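tokens incoming
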């Protein structure tokens, strides 16, 4: 099949001020959140953790997506791949934003209190893993691995653009094979560390898959919104077509079902077993006002997207796809809030302004980093040998 003629400008406009605007919003948001540290010390760290977990999930899902496409020699995603490549390439910078969590471990994690461990046999049994030193070491290891993989995937893809060396595809596949395996382990343990260990007595054997399912669903919503933004700015309008949106919508629909299956499986097994130390986690999150958040994200990230995207025509309807994508990302944030906040506000739901400012702050920095790097190279991998097939979307 012959390659369609590309008539678009493939370079993001260098004179666009979106990067500066996003960084400005991000800095203001973080400064406002920083003020909250002196007003409500513990609330600051919990609000920050919610936002950090949200944007980290998008970056990590991007890394997995890129490696999966290389490993499976996927063609449909080639024209879209530079977006997740760019997101995951910034993991080495994003890793710096875990520092406030490390500094706030004593506020976030009950198992960092020696007096609590001394009087709790369960925490004593988990102490070889749940201790401050090992926690910090693990975070360094996680981000070192993710940063290496993310930057390598991006760097070699850009190098292929410049040299046309198709042999780099083999190198990327060979990196992606063990990379996905290592990624799966580190992502699971990171989810245990950041979120599950907030309640150190509680555990779920599929919590890592649960966090992955949330993250991957959120990624496809993010990719759709970024493509729509580029089109709105008149970029790649003749390169990316409705066929690409359809493919992303199919993936979004599929991972909506996958998310629903995993989330319900986790709930059903704990509900059916009815073991007090397991059910208490859900009991705290289905009372005191938190139950309304649960109902919201149940409908917003599963029921409504499932129904809305069920038909073929809906998957290329821009209004439907845009609305569903925004709804899923809002629900993703709400669900992470629902997981984290009952540990702090266990007497009932309480929304702090720091949850909003920390999201705006980290979001501004996260997207600012994306567009800063996105400007530096072509918006699609122009020398990839599978690009021709990817562009033939009608």
């Amino acid at each position: 099949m012959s390659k369609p003629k590309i008539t678009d400008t493939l370079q993001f406009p260098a004179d666009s001020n979106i990067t500066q605007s996003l960084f400005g919003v991000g800095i203001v948001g973080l400064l406002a959140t920083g003020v909250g540290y002196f007003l409500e010390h513990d609330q600051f760290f919990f609000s920050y953790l919610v936002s950090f977990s949200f944007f980290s999930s998008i970056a990590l899902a991007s890394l997995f997506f890129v490696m999966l496409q290389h490993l499976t020699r996927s063609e449909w995603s080639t024209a879209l791949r530079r977006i997740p490549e760019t997101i995951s390439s910034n993991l080495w910078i994003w890793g710096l934003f875990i520092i406030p969590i490390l500094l706030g471990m004593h506020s976030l994690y009950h198992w960092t209190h020696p007096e609590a461990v001394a009087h709790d046999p369960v925490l004593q049994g988990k102490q070889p893993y749940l201790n401050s030193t090992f926690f910090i070491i693990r975070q360094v290891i996680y981000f070192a691995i993710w940063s290496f993989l993310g930057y390598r995937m991006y760097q070699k893809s850009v190098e292929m653009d410049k040299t046309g060396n198709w042999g780099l595809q083999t190198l990327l596949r060979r990196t992606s094979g063990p990379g996905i395996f290592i990624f799966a382990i580190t992502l699971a343990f990171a989810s245990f560390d950041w979120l599950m260990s907030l309640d150190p007595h509680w555990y779920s054997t599929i919590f890592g898959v649960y966090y992955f399912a949330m993250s991957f669903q959120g990624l496809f919503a993010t990719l759709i919104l970024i493509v729509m933004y580029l089109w709105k700015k008149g970029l790649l309008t003749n390169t990316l077509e409705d066929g690409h949106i359809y493919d992303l919508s199919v993936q979004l629909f599929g991972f909506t079902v996958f998310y629903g299956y995993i989330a319900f499986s986790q709930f059903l097994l704990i509900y059916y077993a009815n073991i007090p130390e397991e059910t208490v986690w859900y009991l705290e999150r289905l009372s005191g006002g938190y139950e309304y958040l649960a109902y919201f994200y149940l409908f917003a990230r599963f029921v409504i997207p499932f129904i809305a995207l069920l038909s073929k025509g809906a998957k290329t309807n821009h209004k439907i796809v845009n609305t569903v994508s925004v709804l899923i990302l809002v629900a993703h944030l709400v669900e992470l809030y629902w997981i984290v906040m009952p540990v702090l506000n266990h007497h009932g739901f309480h929304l702090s302004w720091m949850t909003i400012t920390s999201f705006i702050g980290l979001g501004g920095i996260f997207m600012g980093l994306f567009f800063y790097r996105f400007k530096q190279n072509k918006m699609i991998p122009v020398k990839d040998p599978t690009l021709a097939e990817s562009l033939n979307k009608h």
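note: The mean pLDDT is 94.
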